[in-house]
């Protein structure tokens, strides 16, 4: 065959080439444009071409090489497009896998459980601000500026320039006065929330933690009502065999004041490290609302009485889940957090 016809044939073959796989594409490359391919061989055959046509031959072979390369690129492109279009389309009707579902934070689980227990006996949940002023956090609660009890809680002040000064609330009791100012008795509320104290962070203390405040104000509310409410709470929260004990204590805003222990549900009061071998674990502070607090908030203390309590959520969660380091609740380590199952 005439060498010029051969070029023509090859051009036709290159244009007509069809490929379906990457393998075939590679074969195409080796056959035509590879270093030992047919076009290279053609170049070498220039010596067989008569001198007067060498120039024409050279141009034709060069053009052939060009078109082989262009063809190779377009075959390659279309192969990639096909590959892309074959990417599996997910079946959106399949049920989702629950492997990566998050889990609830243990503090949220325990908080909701507490809220639920009090809801069943008529306590309404309200919230108060975390950034508070001095009046609600202290003064209204019978703790004026020069009161030594202010030292009981190491406060983060935000600004002392204003009057009253701004601070991060040191207890959810700050919400008591806010509610009493705006609602008329009977008041029966709980306030779950975060509080802040300037404490050195350790396994047992943190600069932030959570409380659930309770406040009940109506006519003829007695200490017996407080005790019964807390006994109900302890039995719902820690099991129906739980017993409670109230120890005299001091808070400026309650009189009388008490701290409540619950019988140790870890060792069944036999004595263990958690209850420090006493059989009892302290879980909350409480008392009858001091008449001075009622008066500061515009409630007639001759007519109304009330009780209040503040429960630490971390402490309860630590006991319930046998967690021995408070810091774990704030580190957001997923390996820790995913172990807790909501029991509510
Ligand atoms: N606010 C107190 C504390 O944080 C707890 C408390 C609340 C005590 C209500 C009595 C009444 O320590």
Kindly list the characteristics that best describe this protein.
single chain; 3-stranded antiparallel sheet; 2 domains; rod-shaped; binds phenylalanine; 11 helices; 38% helix; alpha+beta; 7-stranded mixed sheet; 10 strands; 344 residues; BirA Bifunctional Protein, domain 2
- Termini separation comes to 90 Å
Structural class: alpha+beta
| The top level CATH class name of the largest domain | Alpha Beta
Instruction: Average the pLDDT over all residues and give the rounded result.
Output: 91
Apparent shape:
rod-shaped
**Strand percentage:** 15-25%
Strand order of the largest sheet: 1-5-6-10-9-8-7
Let me know the CATH homologous superfamily of the largest domain: Bira Bifunctional Protein, Domain 2
Low-confidence stretches: none
- Give the SSE order as H and E letters: HHHHHEEHEEHEEHEEEHEHH
Give the number of DSSP strands: 10
Count the domains: 2
CATH hierarchy: architecture of the largest domain: 2-Layer Sandwich
> Helix share of residues?
25-40%
With helices defined by DSSP (H or I, 4 residues minimum), what is the helix count? 11
CATH topology call of the largest domain: BirA Bifunctional Protein, domain 2
Largest pleated sheet = 7 strands, mixed
């Amino acid at each position: 065959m005439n060498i010029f016809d051969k070029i023509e044939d090859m051009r036709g073959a290159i244009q007509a080439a069809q490929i379906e796989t990457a393998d075939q594409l590679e074969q195409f490359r080796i056959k035509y444009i590879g270093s030992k391919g047919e076009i290279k061989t053609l170049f070498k055959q220039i010596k067989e071409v008569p001198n007067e046509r060498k120039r024409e031959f050279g141009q034709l072979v060069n053009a052939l090489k060009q078109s082989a390369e262009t063809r190779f690129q377009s075959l390659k492109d279309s192969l990639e497009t096909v590959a892309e279009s074959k990417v599996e389309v997910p079946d959106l009707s399949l049920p989702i896998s629950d492997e990566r579902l998050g889990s609830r934070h243990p503090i949220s689980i325990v908080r909701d459980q507490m809220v639920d227990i009090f809801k069943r006996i008529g306590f309404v949940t309200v919230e108060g601000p975390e950034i508070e002023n001095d009046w609600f956090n202290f003064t209204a609660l019978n703790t004026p500026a020069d009161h030594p009890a202010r030292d009981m809680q190491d406060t983060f002040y935000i600004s002392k320039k204003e009057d009253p000064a701004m601070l991060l609330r040191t207890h959810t009791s700050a919400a008591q006065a806010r509610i009493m100012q705006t609602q008329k008795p009977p008041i029966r509320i709980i306030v779950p929330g975060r509080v802040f104290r300037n404490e050195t962070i350790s396994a047992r203390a943190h600069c932030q933690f959570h409380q659930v405040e309770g406040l009940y104000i109506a006519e003829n509310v007695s200490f017996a009502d407080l005790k019964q409410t807390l006994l109900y709470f302890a039995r719902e929260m820690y099991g129906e065999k739980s017993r409670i004990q109230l120890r005299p204590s001091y808070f400026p805003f309650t009189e009388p004041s008490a701290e409540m222990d619950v019988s140790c549900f870890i060792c069944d009061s036999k004595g263990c490290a958690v209850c420090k071998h006493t059989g009892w674990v302290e879980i909350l502070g409480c008392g009858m609302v001091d008449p001075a607090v009622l008066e500061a908030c515009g409630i007639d203390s001759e007519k109304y009485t009330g009780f209040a309590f503040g429960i630490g959520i971390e402490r309860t969660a630590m006991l319930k889940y046998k967690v021995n380091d408070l810091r774990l609740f704030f580190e957001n380590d997923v390996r820790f957090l995913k172990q807790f199952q909501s029991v509510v």
